């Protein structure tokens, strides 16, 4: 189970940066997301013909970040994560469209990123405070 402090932070955001890599060349893109904390996974929409979509299909091990944009050191918060990219299932699609109903008109392909690791930096808990989540195998 993901630490509730991490979940609370994630749920305050709707955009993550997804990092992919192919042939030793990294790339990143921003994606709207939904967190399914039961699995746990991020659900994102992207076309398989985008660069990050193609790369995630070729190398499904992805990484990413969600960050609070601030210059106040005591308020810095953000996560770094790693996971496995796959097609979203029916329940995950329902969760995505519930949060982003406007996306239905675009008929996007939805993907899930099964989270295997999260590192949460939260300076509101003390300078450089880190909380981690490791998926059980």
How are the strands of the biggest sheet laid out side by side?
Answer: 1-2-3-6-5-4
First-last Cα distance: 13 Å
Give the name of the CATH architecture: Roll
The succession of helices and strands, N to C, reads: HEEEHEEHEE
CATH topological fold name: Pnp Oxidase, Chain A
How much helix is in the residues? 10-25%
Give the amount of beta strand, in percent.
35-45%
Question: Can you identify the CATH class?
Answer: Mainly Beta
Shape: globular
The largest sheet, given as strand count, sense and whether it forms a barrel, is: 6 strands, antiparallel, barrel
Low-confidence stretches: none
CATH superfamily: Electron Transport, Fmn-binding Protein, Chain A
Explained architecture:
This protein has helices at 4-11, 51-58, 90-99; strands at 15-22, 25-36, 41-45, 61-67, 77-87, 110-122, 130-134. The chain has a single domain (4-134), classed as Electron Transport, Fmn-binding Protein, Chain A (Pnp Oxidase, Chain A, Roll). It is built from three helices and seven strands. With 137 residues, it is of the alpha+beta class. Strand 2 and strand 3 (41-45) form a beta hairpin. The mean pLDDT is 96. The chain has a six-stranded antiparallel β-barrel. It is globular and about 40 Å long.
Primary descriptors:
Pnp Oxidase, Chain A, 7 strands, 45% strand, six-stranded antiparallel β-barrel, globular, 137 residues, alpha+beta
Précis, in short:
With 137 residues, this protein is of the alpha+beta class.
Task: Give the SSE layout.
Elements: H1 4-11, E1 15-22, E2 25-36, E3 41-45, H2 51-58, E4 61-67, E5 77-87, H3 90-99, E6 110-122, E7 130-134
Antiparallel strand pairs: 1-2, 1-4, 2-3, 3-6, 4-5, 5-6, 6-7
